[in-house]
From TrEMBL:
<dbReference type="GO" id="GO:0000139">
    <property type="term" value="C:Golgi membrane"/>
</dbReference>
<feature type="transmembrane region" description="Helical">
    <location>
        <begin position="32"/>
        <end position="51"/>
    </location>
</feature>
<keyword id="KW-0472">Membrane</keyword>
<keyword id="KW-0808">Transferase</keyword>
<dbReference type="InterPro" id="IPR004263">
    <property type="entry name" value="Exostosin"/>
</dbReference>
<keyword id="KW-0812">Transmembrane</keyword>
<keyword id="KW-0328">Glycosyltransferase</keyword>
<comment type="similarity">
    <text>Belongs to the glycosyltransferase 47 family.</text>
</comment>
<dbReference type="GO" id="GO:0010417">
    <property type="term" value="P:glucuronoxylan biosynthetic process"/>
</dbReference>
<dbReference type="InterPro" id="IPR040911">
    <property type="entry name" value="Exostosin_GT47"/>
</dbReference>
<protein>
    <recommendedName>
        <fullName>Exostosin GT47 domain-containing protein</fullName>
    </recommendedName>
</protein>
<keyword id="KW-0333">Golgi apparatus</keyword>
<dbReference type="Pfam" id="PF03016">
    <property type="entry name" value="Exostosin_GT47"/>
</dbReference>
<dbReference type="GO" id="GO:0016757">
    <property type="term" value="F:glycosyltransferase activity"/>
</dbReference>
<keyword id="KW-1133">Transmembrane helix</keyword>
<keyword id="KW-0735">Signal-anchor</keyword>
<feature type="domain" description="Exostosin GT47">
    <location>
        <begin position="91"/>
        <end position="388"/>
    </location>
</feature>
Amino acid sequence: MAELHRSIKNRKGFYVKMKFFRTKNGKQENPFLIRYFKWILWFSLSFYFFVKFLNNHEPGTSSLKTTMINQSHRALSESIFHEPKDNHDLNDLKVYVYELPAKYNVDWLSNPRCSNHLFASEVAIHRALMRSEFRTFDPTEADFFFVPVYVSCNFSTVNGFPAIGHARSLLSSAVEFISSELPFWNRSNGSDHVFVASHDYGACFHAMEDRAIAAGIPEFMNNSIILQTFGVKYQHPCQNVENIIIPPYISPENVQSTLLKSPITAPRDIFAFFRGKMEVHPKNVSGRFYSKRVRTEILRKYGNDRRFYLKRHRFAGYQSEIVRSVFCLCPLGWAPWSPRLVESVALGCIPVIIADGIRLPFESTVPWPEISLTVRENDVAKLSGVLDYVAATNLSAIQRNLWDPKLRRALLFHDDVETGDATWEVLVELSKKLSSWFVVFHMELVRGTVADLASGDRLNVSSWDT
Ligand SMILES: *[C@@H]1O[C@H](CO)[C@@H](O)[C@H](O)[C@H]1NC(C)=O
Ligand SMILES: *[C@@H]1O[C@H](CO)[C@@H](O)[C@H](O)[C@H]1NC(C)=O
Ligand SMILES: *[C@@H]1O[C@H](CO)[C@@H](O)[C@H](O)[C@H]1NC(C)=O
Ligand SMILES: *[C@@H]1O[C@H](CO)[C@@H](O)[C@H](O)[C@H]1NC(C)=O
Ligand SMILES: *[C@@H]1O[C@H](CO)[C@@H](O)[C@H](O)[C@H]1NC(C)=O
Ligand SMILES: *[C@@H]1O[C@H](CO)[C@@H](O)[C@H](O)[C@H]1NC(C)=O
Ligand SMILES: *[C@@H]1O[C@H](CO)[C@@H](O)[C@H](O)[C@H]1NC(C)=O
Ligand SMILES: *[C@@H]1O[C@H](CO)[C@@H](O)[C@H](O)[C@H]1NC(C)=O
């Protein structure tokens, strides 16, 4: 046996060594399996087809990136095989929250609107994490690093909208700060770092799609995890990064006080409701029209239909109108998402989503198809018929699904993380990323002997060149 073993070990030829690793959140652990194969035709063929098979696998269920490095007689292939796992344990999750100078975050709170407006999830998630049991003060045991930068609170003195022109420089200066102070950014090149980008086009930081696409995601955020309100089901440069879709911020206190006055199950006297910007003649802004003219079309078609309660002006008490409505229209604005999605669900009004291809927040918890209607942007003319049909057939089934208190909880952020609330859902999504495990295997092909291969990292490839 020993004789045979030695002769195999010393037999010259082409051999393949495969090393399998598991990685956790980008951090590679020691190999858990090493195998040697003699490089023969059937092996190369089957390996070729194996790689092809994995590469063609459904995206999302598994993915494989293969790079072949041809260093004369050594071929090295590194592949990543990704196997999502369903059971994830929140209890083990640890998030380190960076303590940044006040100019990056709390200084902005001098304007009370900062923690209350549509984009305020950047503040809400930070606050909730600071006080949560998932926070760790020891960065060496952290699974994720939260970078709390408030970029949405520089409200324009002209129109009151958040000016986000400074977002990129504020964020990049924050990253410079953390990467010079602590080793953790450099360790993973930011891939275990989490940012909030709660704007129209998320981490592209612009309200107009063409400008957002042209600007792209800042390069330094490319490897990180972005919590963003923007998401679509097709390829888009503004979501071409590891991301989690979060709901826009709606104050849970406001929802609470609206529901105290009018409970969710109270009779609803408005059939279809919309209040918001609805231009009769939308301006052509660099070739694009607000809401792709969908809102204009809604107004044109249903402005005189008494069952449609359509209002174009701001009204602070509009939540009392939502809670009186059966259907709430949620057409796109500049971006596909809108705060109406959250307000409708929170106040029990069936959201009628008109935003082709939109990706909705927390789809694994919130059963959107069972609690909302979707109407294509081009089908606005059929809206009335769709609503009538649903009202006559399965209205009470949808309302029963929608009025589940679990859904209101999932879409609202609270100052303290509550089981099942929006920050909780973010943590669940993060922990899924963590527990989806990766198998990386390295394959080396050498001309030599198994013994040469077994010498591991001391392998000197060039010494076989003769
Ligand atoms: C690998 O490199 C060697 C030498 O540089 C070359 O002769 C050979 O054709 C290459 N093989 C492949 C598959 O590219
Ligand atoms: C706030 O926005 C204005 C207008 O875009 C800009 O000039 C100013 O520098 C910003 N302020 C900060 C502190 O970034
Ligand atoms: C991280 O990398 C940057 C750029 O390479 C460097 O300037 C910085 O000193 C590094 N940080 C640490 C903590 O080593
Ligand atoms: C950022 O990531 C995307 C997708 O992974 C990639 O296509 C792009 O080239 C990257 N950009 C930079 C500057 O690294
Ligand atoms: C870190 O990520 C950035 C952005 O994707 C990339 O340009 C850079 O080369 C990466 N650096 C290292 C050391 O991997
Ligand atoms: C909108 O404006 C662009 C130029 O900014 C022009 O090319 C386009 O034809 C206009 N579209 C319509 C429908 O008027
Ligand atoms: C309600 O009916 C519509 C139209 O038939 C259907 O698409 C939808 O799935 C139904 N929803 C529920 C919750 O039953
Ligand atoms: C590898 O081989 C080259 C060329 O034969 C030699 O110069 C070098 O010292 C060797 N390296 C090691 C680590 O053995």
